[in-house]
Design a protein that fits this description.
The chain is α/β, with parallel strands linked by helices and 408 residues long. It has helices at 6-9, 28-38, 68-73, 87-98, 111-114, 119-125, 150-157, 178-201, 211-217, 222-229, 264-273, 277-282, 286-291, 293-304, 309-318, 329-334, 336-341, 384-392, 396-404, and strands at residues 19-22, 42-47, 77-81, 102-105, 130-135, 206-210, 246-250, 256-260, 323-325, 344-349, 355-360. The protein has 19 helices and 11 strands. The protein is elongated, with a radius of gyration of 25 Å.
């Protein structure tokens, strides 16, 4: 049972009628499918018999045998088991693809082709199909066959080199799978664009995304600045090269705040909040602040360390200084803004004995056709009978035969 917002439970969703086959694993391409599912698409998760997606065992395990990560990120999907390596399994997949609009996969280039499930194979049975292919490095190029994960994408794409303290080791930003989630977002955008094209032109297309490309795309002026003047940016710690003060500052109670003065007006407001008009006069221009970064940031640090985080936030917000608490997840659960926006979605999960599970809610919010979380990640193969019966016409006897032979 899902505790959904009353306003969202009966409203139509714009992707109803779109069918997606998600045979990918872990996060990136499956996250694309999850976004589509939140907005109404029927997403069928195709998993290896017996084992399923390895993401089921990634992170904190529940008594059901699936991880909390799986319950959250496989939301709204149905699960079928299918051995794509078996020719009989590949045949069943092609049958399902004939009735689908989208296929999401993330095997190494050539793997789906080896099974008779490549782009040419699938569009031969369904010319309107859109196929999302996510890999570490894309479908071609000298690195195409290398394995890839988000941490590798952060490194190759240029983000890791920017993270950490100056003269220190490079670090992974937040130790999170950021590159996977960014690629999933790019995947969702590209699928919607391709579906729009298919609707207009009558045929689908193949989408090719490398994890490192999503990371590289979000590094603001890094590429043009290097080409323009040869600058190689490195790690800048808690500050940033182009603005000051622009970083993280410790408060008297041991908590931290982020303050971002990206222009002269914002710094003038901060000086007023600090009751230091002399700073506002001496360092009125960004060039002056950058030239005396240590003094400016030292003054801000001295101020925050003599006030609690609540007091610093109150003073900054009173003068409209961009500032925010550096939240732990415990802080987030107590934050009234997260509560007011409904960012924490609570689900009573029957397969866990009615225990409540809290997951991030749907983003973005649409006024007329909001997305929703209808169910958490499915149990392995829970949709076998219904989905194979509907899409492939399999009888109970045929299902039992395929199960005995390890096809499903």
């Amino acid at each position: 049972m899902t505790a959904a917002d009353p306003a969202a439970t009966s409203s139509p969703r714009p992707l109803e009628g779109v069918r997606v086959l998600d045979c990918a694993t872990f996060i990136a391409a499956p996250y694309t499918a999850a976004i589509l599912a939140e907005f109404g698409a029927e997403v069928i998760k195709v998993e290896q018999p017996g084992a399923g997606d390895p993401f089921r065992r990634f992170g904190t395990m529940t008594e059901r045998g699936d991880s909390l990560a799986w319950l959250s990120e496989a939301r709204n999907k149905r699960s079928v088991t299918l051995n794509l390596r078996d020719p009989k399994g590949a045949k069943l997949f092609r049958q399902m693809a004939r009735e689908a609009d989208v296929v999401c996969e993330n095997f190494r280039p050539g793997t789906m082709e080896k099974w008779g499930l490549g782009w040419e194979d699938l569009r031969a049975v369904n010319p309107r199909l859109v196929m999302l292919r996510v890999t570490g490095y894309g479908q071609d190029g000298p690195y195409a066959q290398r394995p890839g994960f988000a941490r590798i994408a952060h490194a190759v794409g240029g983000l890791t080199h920017l993270a950490g303290m100056p003269d220190g080791p490079p670090v992974t930003p937040g130790s999170t799978s950021l590159g996977d989630y960014m690629t999933g977002l790019y995947g969702a955008v590209s699928v919607l664009v391709a579906l729009r094209h298919a609707q207009a032109a009558g045929h689908g297309q193949m989408i090719d995304i490398g994890l490192y490309e999503s990371v590289f795309r979000v590094l603001d002026e890094l590429a043009p600045r290097y080409a323009w003047e040869g600058t190689v940016r490195g790690p800048e710690g808690v500050a940033t090269l182009n603005a000051c003060p622009h970083g993280h500052f410790e408060c008297a109670d041991g908590a931290w705040v982020a303050i971002a003065c990206t222009n002269d007006k914002m710094f003038a407001r901060l000086a007023k909040a600090m009751k230091r008009p002399d700073l506002g006069e001496r360092f009125a221009a960004v060039a002056d602040r950058l030239a005396h970064r240590e003094e400016v940031e030292g003054a801000v640090t001295a101020w925050t360390r003599t006030h609690t985080r609540a007091a610093v936030m109150e003073a900054c917000l009173a003068e409209e200084v961009p500032a925010g608490s550096i939240n732990t997840i415990a802080d987030i659960f107590e934050d009234p803004h997260f509560a007011a926006r409904g960012n924490l979605h609570r689900v009573v999960e029957a397969s866990l004995g009615g225990r409540e599970v809290v997951v991030p809610n749907v983003v973005p919010r649409l006024s007329d056709t909001p997305g929703r979380v209808e169910r958490l990640g499915p149990e392995l193969g829970e949709g076998n009978a219904e989905i194979y019966g509907k899409l492939c016409g399999l009888t109970d006897e045929e299902l039992a035969m395929y199960r005995k032979k390890g096809v499903i």
